[in-house]
Design a protein that fits this description.
With about 120 residues, the chain is of the alpha+beta class. It is about 50% helix and about 10% strand.
Length: about 120
């Protein structure tokens, strides 16, 4: 019997507004800072990019390790930070672990950092 994949999270229902539209609350700043800290590291940013751009929308850890001159445990550490922050999801299949991007989390970051056209028109 084959193992069914774990359902991936859908877009985050609670999305933030743009920074230029209204100030971020203290609670939201705490939540978002965890995400930003997680992708602020160059290795983790590359891992997110490699996973997101991988054919089929998910990547095996075996597909990721060859892109770096780092040990397997170091790559695993970075993936754990991304997973704990909620940026990626994972599932073990046999001896390998597969990773995918959580699109709702990226959508939340995009919404927060997106410029608001009305505010830009006033500035421009």
């Amino acid at each position: 019997m084959s193992k069914q994949p774990v359902p991936r999270p859908v877009a985050d229902a609670e999305c933030c507004t743009s920074l230029v539209a209204e100030p971020v609350s203290a609670a939201e700043a705490e939540e978002v800072s965890v995400l930003l800290k997680a992708i602020a590291d160059p290795v983790r940013l590359r891992l997110v990019s490699l996973i997101a751009s991988h054919q089929g929308g998910e990547a095996c850890v075996c597909d990721l390790t060859g892109a770096f001159e780092l040990t397997g445990p170091t790559i695993s550490h970075h993936l754990k930070i991304l997973r704990e922050a909620g940026l990626i999801g994972s599932q073990r299949r046999g001896t390998w672990v597969y990773y995918w991007i959580n699109p709702g989390v990226l959508a939340r970051l995009s919404a927060l950092l997106a410029p608001d056209a009305a505010h830009l028109a006033v500035i421009g």
